[in-house]
Amino acid sequence: MISSKNLQFSYSSQKHFNFPDIFCADSETLLILGQSGKGKTTLLHLLALLLKPESGEINIAGNEVSSFTPSQITKVRAQNIGIIYQRAHFTSSLSVMDNILLPNYFAGKRQDKTKAICLAEQLGFADHLSKKANQLSQGEQQRVSIARALMNNPNVILADEPTSSLDDNNCQKVIELLKSQSKLIDASLVVVTHDQRLKDEFANQIFL
Ligand SMILES: Nc1ncnc2c1ncn2[C@@H]1O[C@H](COP(=O)(O)OP(=O)(O)OP(=O)(O)O)[C@@H](O)[C@H]1O
């Protein structure tokens, strides 16, 4: 479960955001739509506890994090949140497999290679596990990002424009995968996008 209340954030005195309240229960989905520059990535990074709000509350899996220390926040993030970034970031010196295993390491868990292989098979990139991530196409990298976000069975999956670089066929596939995988682990799935193709795919929607 993830929720937020009265979230405010500023990059500068000219760039101030007052975000609508968010609520997404376990196993539910939420689509946040908005045109370029409306603050979608900013909101997602606030919900991912990567940015600190000026004011307001964020609750993740029962943790109201406003008064948490940085190390408590890092722990809540590592244990509860899976993030799919707008542009996939990988550690270039590591194989695809080792990149997928990194979240286990950051959460202090044992490296679950069986789960990594299983996700790679479900997401259709099992043949690429020993390659470096930069040898993969954009669409393949997007699917590796999804696998990486799912490795710790997060309570909350946050996806930033997961379909923007994909054709219609792969767009549909990625959304189905995100929805089915999050349902499988009872996670809340929050997607921010300007991709109008996703409008009919999510029952709960918010416009920025
Ligand atoms: N680090 C930063 N410092 C100052 N301004 C920023 C910073 N990051 C983003 N902004 C500004 O805040 C606004 C919102 O940015 P954000 O990336 O959240 O929008 P977005 O809705 O995700 O846009 P897009 O769809 O183009 O990715 C933009 O005008 C952007 O220029």
Low-pLDDT parts are: none
CATH structural class: Alpha Beta
Helix percent band: 25-40%
**Major sheet, described briefly?**
5 strands, antiparallel
Strand content bin = 15-25%
Throw out a few tags for this protein.
208 residues; alpha/beta; Rossmann fold; five-stranded antiparallel beta sheet; five-stranded parallel beta sheet; 6 helices; 10 strands; 34% helix; globular; binds adenosine-5'-triphosphate; transmembrane transporter activity; ATP-binding cassette domain-containing protein; nucleotide-binding
Report on this model:
The chain is an alpha/beta fold and about 210 residues long. It contains 6 helices and 10 strands, in the order E-E-E-E-H-E-E-H-E-H-H-H-E-H-E-E. Strands 1, 2, 3, 5 and 6 form a 5-stranded antiparallel beta sheet that branches. The longest helix has 17 residues, at about 170-185. The chain is globular and about 45 Å long. The chain starts with a strand and ends with a strand. The protein binds adenosine-5'-triphosphate. Adenosine-5'-triphosphate binds next to helix 1.
Brief summary:
Residues 2-208 form the ABC transporter domain. By secondary structure, the chain is of the alpha/beta class. It has helices at 40-47, 70-80, 96-106, 113-123, 138-150, 168-184; strands spanning 2-10, 16-18, 22-24, 29-33, 55-60, 63-64, 81-84, 156-160, 188-193, 205-207.
